[in-house]
Amino acid sequence: MTELTSEERILKVLRAVPTGKVASYGQVARAAGLPRNARQVGAILGKLPDDSDVPWHRIVNSQGAISVRGGDCEKRQRMLLNLEGVKVDDRHRIDLHEFAWDGQLLDSAS
Fold it and tell me: Which pTM was predicted?
């Protein structure tokens, strides 16, 4: 069996974030075994195709806020999170005590 690339490990973790929960860029990087690579998570999310099965909308910054990316992306992310029952306040923040993913994977991300 071949070892997963860092991008494959990150994608695997991103797909593991369950409906109704959010994770930070840094949390995803750590769960993928790539601490301090939060920017790589953002870069991977930024190049996802529109028809991707990766739940990109469940990823927020370390303060639990939707990151500003321009266009209608924040509005779309807020709508998708609301559809999953995640409450987003007027400042685009999510209560991490209530909605943060515990980081548990069904199997190893590496």
Answer: 0.90
